[in-house]
Request: fold
Amino acid sequence: MIDLQGFSVAVDADPARLILDHVDLQVGRGARVGIVGESGCGKSTLLRGLTGLPGAGLHVADGALSVAGYDLVGMPAAERRALLGKVVAMVPQGVALSLTPHRDIASHFADVFQLDDARGDVPGRAASLLDEVGLRGAAMVGRFPHELSGGEQQRVLIALGLARDPDVLLLDEPTSALDVGVAHDILGLIEDEHRARGFTLVCVSHDLGVIRRVAEHVVVMNAGRVVEQGPLERVTAHPTNPFTVRLLEAAPTLGAISTAPSNRSPLVRVDRLTVVRSSASSGAFRSQTQRTTTALDDVTFEVRKGEILGVIGESGSGKSTFLKSLCGLLEVSSGSLTLGDEVDLSVRVRRRPGSVLQRIQMVFQNPDDSLNPAHTVRRVLSAGRPRSEVDDDQLAELLRTVGLQRSMLDRRSPQLSGGEKQRVAIARALAQRPELLLLDEVTSALDVTVQAEVLDTLRAIHRDLGTTMVFVSHDIAVVASMAERIVVLRNGRLVEVGEVADVLDRPNDHYTSMLVELARRR
Amino acid sequence: MTDLGRVTGDDEVLHTSTRRRRHRWASLGGAIVAAHVVLAFVAPYLPLQDVSEQHSDAVLQGASSAHWFGTDNLGRDVFARTLWGGRPSIGLAAASVVLAALLGFLIGTFAAIAGGGVDKVMMRVNDVLLAVPSLLVLLLVASFIGREPLVLIVTLAVMYAPPIARLVRTASLNVLTRDFVVAARLRGASRWELVVGEVLPNIRGVVLTEVAMQFTWILLAFSSLSFLGLGASPPTPEWGLMIAESRTYMSITAWPVAAPVVMLATLVLGVNSLVDRNGVDGAT
Amino acid sequence: MSIAWQLLRRAAVALLLFAAMACLTFLAVEALPGDACTSLLGRAATENKLEQCREENGLNEPVVARMVDWGCGAVQGDLGYSIKRDAPVTEIIAPRLRNSLVLAGVAGLLAFPAAVVLGLYSAQRRGSRRAKLLDTASLVMMTLPEFVTAAVLWLVFSIWLPILPAVAVLPSDATIGEILPTIWLPAITLAVMVFAHVMRSMRSSVVATSARPFVEAARYRGLPERAVLLRHVLPAALPPAVNVMAVTAAWLLTGTFVVEVVFNFPGLGRLAVDAISDRDTALILALTLFGLAVFILSSFISDTITRLLDPRVRAGVGA
Reply:
């Protein structure tokens, strides 16, 4: 069905730079192929390349591409366009931005139906397609993209891809930014559609779990090249390429569990904590009534001295709200939050004395956002202290703790990789010698191999310095590999709290057991 | 047109924050602007003819070896007047834009940090000021209060600070929501430290670009004012005024109009190329 | 909250804003040194004569009383009386307003359609030689002051190729038929400015929108380029351009002092310059308020259009 030979894609502005370097790929009719690799490896470009259009600013430099017998590289643009969606259809990445905001769902389908010049009942046909992907089609057609949840948008995108019954369906990160339960359902939908329609499926993901679910043939990419490909079982069980081996080893799996030493005294007491957040409703204009949501609802637990406490939850669970409340960035509505025996943490950050501020530090999710791009690493690490107190040896020692070289001191954040940025951010937090380190999804924006390294560093810091950590993540496997105890939050409520082993083996709650079950299956 | 520039241009400038591509236009623009500034400084020390000496026997002459750019309707040397003619406008515009930038920066950061009601009220006032046609206000002030440089500088600064304030506010808000600012708050940084240490280094580029743009609009506003007879007063050599004085004689000789026109145009375009306005949104 | 109710609310806010600014303007004009009497009498002013003049014209009343008085009159269409010109302000303004409207209309017709089309073209063909030429030309057009553009146009069309009249000498109440032949040079001068501003905003807005993922998604769905542009890019790219168009349209009515003076055009801009040099406060006040009203109205209109283009507002979500 797909025959790719010596396929190379180069940057328009710099034709010597190859994004794809002589890729060969053969895919049979009805096969399910998964492409996996880390960010920047060229997997998305390869997927786009299968349509003959590698994307803005890129061009096909070399090689041949045949899809369903058509030479998509050689043919004129207008002919190729006529085949898009009909022979080969793309379901794009980035759910929230891939539907046109000012057009309703029916118009999206009308666009596509028009291409086959089939007049007739557009809403009816659109509705039946939407029904097929598990949405209530009749109700959905008149809605606008912003009225849909992330999962619903992804389903609409899949329905749009299927609208003209393509021979090949290309999926780009179909579950990124979706909560685990929703992602699970979407993957199920993809499996069902493939079974029913028999198209050839090519799916790109950074997540091996996704590839395991949807693919039978795996292509592993690194730096623009295919480093290994073969049947799923063979590649995952007996990888031959060192990169594949690393990728497989780095993928977090439920297992590595440390146990919590008993009788530790509490460091933070969370007692019936309720936080109501008001948010100006989304949209480009001011609203009269502010919406309020109870982000944390009557939550009680404790963080014990010296432990790593894992907090797990999906979007809207209240896990970020919890961290922000600890930092004094949000107003506590009721209940109490105490540090040690005496310090009241419902005091906002501006009113906290320096001695309290210094005890709690935080590392953030987005590496690109967490360091000031205008400052050198030296300045980042020594911020807030008089220049005379800081010397390079001290800072170099700090960098060593987080696994970085002294030579980093003169760099600025744009010159650092994602993993290096997070390490510097950890070092910045450690510079304050905090008692409590808050880690907010610190590895979720990183590639799996980098994630594994950063997690190792955090474990080493915990071992050597004994800092208490609160490790927040949506990924139960990552949390389980780090934490001694786990708190599960959902919709602002405490679902469960307990030792990792207990929670994993004997979840008390239906929701927790679903999370564990899904993580096991990956 | 000066009002249009004041009210419309700034979303284009915002794009520069992400990536500013060096362009050969920028160095050309820089050279032109530098040449203008140097000329304005050294004009009094050059061996030029007297700018206000009138030669009644040689009015409206074309270019010659005696008068390189010819003479105007009063027989004054156009070359000398052209070289001198940038001094009032460049000096006044530079002073005004520095004051406007200061005002705009203070107002913009204050509004961004204060937030809430204070921010809303300040930006409302800002928008109202933006809606007032600047040339009308200038004409009124120059006519009723006076055309002393200090008066004009303050008026221009007040009229041209709002767009800078708006940009500073938007850019600061963008920076203030980022995690590294939260990190600074968590180590106990004061508001002043946040503005100077965290925000300022990240908005410097965009703000300077905007200030450079406002410089050109102020320059043109002042020239327009002179053109309308309420800026520089005769016999001061000033480009806008020179154009106004000589335009009725354009069918006889174009030099007295063309020379200041070219100077004004090259200066404005030079500043524009220096901040690389054309390259900005072309770079994706 | 329905869209109609929102619009009503915003209209009320705009009116209130205007009223507040009208009061401020009245006080500001009052605060200017000198009044109608000093300017009318000029050098001949003596304390006695000034006093007598102020008495006759009611200038000795308290400021607030005169402001209320003026406001009540304005609501009924009486904008005051110009002592200097010895005529009601409305009578002075009316014919010139008509002339300015005609001038703005012609300039707008010349500029707006071309700007939108060429802005789109330049964004679509970004990087091509023609697009670069267009961008540079528009930058030059935008940054040159009107008196320079006017001088160049004048040189070309009135002196080198004498096809258009340079300076019209027309009374303000000339018929439109008489005005039209003389309108071309001022209209083209204005159109050049407006064209450049609108074209550049259109271009940068289309370029920014084209980079958004939903555009690429539509393209990968196999839509022809034309459909992508008209249905997906354009509606999302229009609001910023509409905003610039509204501002420039307002400017065409109220900011044309220099062009009208250069071409001796009998419109509001020249009237304002004359009124200021005569210190005719009643006229200055009326013209300033007119300018403010036009700006507030134009931003209200552009705001409304922007909202109507946004489905989140149309659907009444979040309100």
Residues 60 and 150 of chain B are 34 Å apart (CA to CA).
